[in-house]
Specification:
alpha/beta
Length: 231
Amino acid sequence: MMKKYNDMFELLQEISDLPITSEIQDAYVKAYGKLHSYPVIMASISGGADSDIMLDMIERVGYPNSTVYYVFFDTGLEFEATKRHLDDLENKYKITIDRYNAKVPVPAGVKKYGYPFLSKNISNFIHRLQRNGFEWEDRPFAELYEKYPKCKAALHWWCNEWGNKSKININNRKWLKEYMIANPPDFPISDGCCKGAKKDTAKMVERLIGPGLSCLGIRKAEGGDCPTTTP
């Protein structure tokens, strides 16, 4: 039987004795505050480890004064094993995960916008450069910005201008710049397929549900604590 917490005092007592890190303990406390502050909550479930952890945390913390809608977006590339896993989650936690087809499935998005490459940020920067006829030149930022004034952010990435320790710079991907100079991409690259398959679909579903809080599980290495929440 899964342990659920009836109040914050019980939660604090319990987690202080659990073999978990202080970061996870903090996440429980933050989740408790969030889940007890909004009457309608939407939680995106992908079938992966990150959203599984988020779902488990939500169910353990509880939401007696809220309604939680669990949603899954079918991007058009989902494995049958993923869909079976959703059924298992529903049975284990006694919940319903509403399935929605992507507004623009990934295959259609790739055909319309271009191929994703390495990450969403990198794909977006390359798309901006391609859109402005970039010639994949290894020149100083000032010279390139004068030649391509409409893609300043992408040029910052290309020229490593985001700061010495920034993970946004292209040099965070070893040899990527040298490779692209030697092998300029001759096919369209974009993060548009992800936007159409997930972001636009999420916005569409949010309009239907009207949540005060939207939850998305993201591992910390990818840019945020798990879970992340957006009022």
